[in-house]
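User: I'll paste a sequence; please echo it back and then give the predicted structure.

Assistant: Echoing your sequence first, then the prediction.
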Amino acid sequence: DSLLNTIRTILKIRTAELTLQEGSLEWIDNLPDGVLGYQRQTAQNTIAVFLNFDNETKGFQFGDGDWMRLFGLSKDDNLKAGILKLNDFGAVILKK
C-alpha cells in the first residue's frame, strides 16, 4: 500500500475514534529498545498505539487478549496470545 493510503486510513481511524481525540494520554513503560507505546483512554474505550523505530522485529508481552486490532502497517504487526509482534519499522493500533 502507498504512504498516502496509509495516512488516509490512520486519519479515518482518528476521526472515527473519539478516544484518540479526547482521551487521556499515558505512556507505556518497559518496552523494548526502539519501541514507543502510549494509551489514550476514555470511560468507554482504551486505545493503544505502538511504533517500532528499529530495523529489527520486536516481540513482547502486552495485554490480556481482549484487544482488537484497528490498524497495522503489515499483517504481521499484531497481538496474539498476549504477545505483541511489530515488524521492523512496524506500527499497530489496538482497541479495548
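DSSP finds two helices and eight strands in the chain. The first helix runs from residue 3 to 16.
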